[in-house]
Design a protein that fits this description.
The protein has two domains: 4-92, Orthogonal Bundle (Transferase Creatine Kinase, Chain A, domain 1), CATH 1.10.135; 110-358, Creatine Kinase, Chain A, domain 2 (2-Layer Sandwich). It is 35% helix and 15% strand. It contains twelve helices and ten strands. The relative contact order is 0.15. Bound molecules: adenosine-5'-diphosphate, D-arginine and magnesium ion. The site of magnesium ion has 3 residues, from loops. Residues 65-68, 198, 229, 275, 277-278, 317 line the site of D-arginine.
Amino acid sequence: DVDPVTIKKIEEAYVMLNGPDGAKCSSLLKKNLTKDVIEKLKTKSTKLGANLYDCIRSGVYCLDALVGVYAPDAEAYTLFAPLFDKIIEDYHGLGPDQKQPPVDLGEGKTKEFPPLDPKGKYIKSTRIRCGRSLNGYQFNPCLTEDNYLEMEEKVKKAFSEFSDEELKGTYYPLDGMSKDTQNQLIADHFLFKEGDRHLQYANACNFWPKGRGIFHNNKKTFLIWVNEEDHLRIISMQEGSDVGAVLERLIKGVRGIEKQVQFSRDDRLGWLTFCPTNLGSTVRASVHIALPKLSAREDFKQICDKLDLQLRGIHGEHSESEGGVYDISNRARLGLSEYEAVKKMYDGVKNLIEMEEKET
Ligand code: ADP
Ligand code: DAR
Ligand code: MG
């Protein structure tokens, strides 16, 4: 079970979150980490040794977090369900008796997503990503250096077995990558950024950059991140607004790698991810789009919220928009299929473009 020092840290977290220091904090952790939940869970640890403090540490140090929790391993979602289920219900609207629908990547339906902006008036590029966790491995906080290296070897082998010409490519470990190459890949939106404090405080960056890297095909239209926030992020992206083509390639990639690697899926929560905000379909379908008139309105964010769309800056989460370009994506991930998540973005962005055209 859990050592007394850790139990004390959990109890102190509650006092801090509900005291003067936590006054401005509005995270789902603060809302749902009640005395009752703490009494129920503070002495529990998963088979692989993860405890409640491992789940909440990020939100204790990052009072500006929206959510503030991460799962240290798959079992945490079940063992610490009194906390996670409440946060999952608040964030995704998934009630205790609801569950993720069966997998539907959208095979045979990509024709439903023709280019959103054929003339290229608004949309610069389209990206669809999903997350996958390798069966039998814990999530970041509990991984040893050997785990990171083992996982990297395992997926590197899987990448080398891609047969489809569109998927074939090379794996580039972060360890040893020149700063210039790394910075260029980040600037060009292909590689993940470093130093996200929410991840650092979640103990998600141990042994960095060991076991981390990026696979991509020659055109950089199919990419896979290894051990950033999730074990894998599988990404399809290209210039323009042809959502169907981007989804077609993502489907090929997911089907390609799942032949070699077993992913952990929960019957109710769908594909398991480190952060509960990415559970279920794990799909984030986004466009880099400039809507000069609409984005000038002070209710632009509310307009997006009403369409269940999430606004991010030009470099993704926790970044600002540049030159009026925003990253707009589906907000919902859990309680709808992969295909439905893409459709949420597609229909929402279509709506925004129609509004932009009508705006005087
Ligand atoms: P994720 O949900 O994949 O972790 P992030 O918000 O961390 O996304 O952003 C990851 C990277 O993907 C950033 O560099 C961001 O600029 C890039 N990105 C997101 N959407 C698009 C898009 N439609 N076109 C080009 N790059 C994109
Ligand atoms: N720092 C977390 C981010 C939640 C969603 N983003 C992810 N998982 N990258 C927060 O609670 O704000
Ligand atoms: Mg990210």
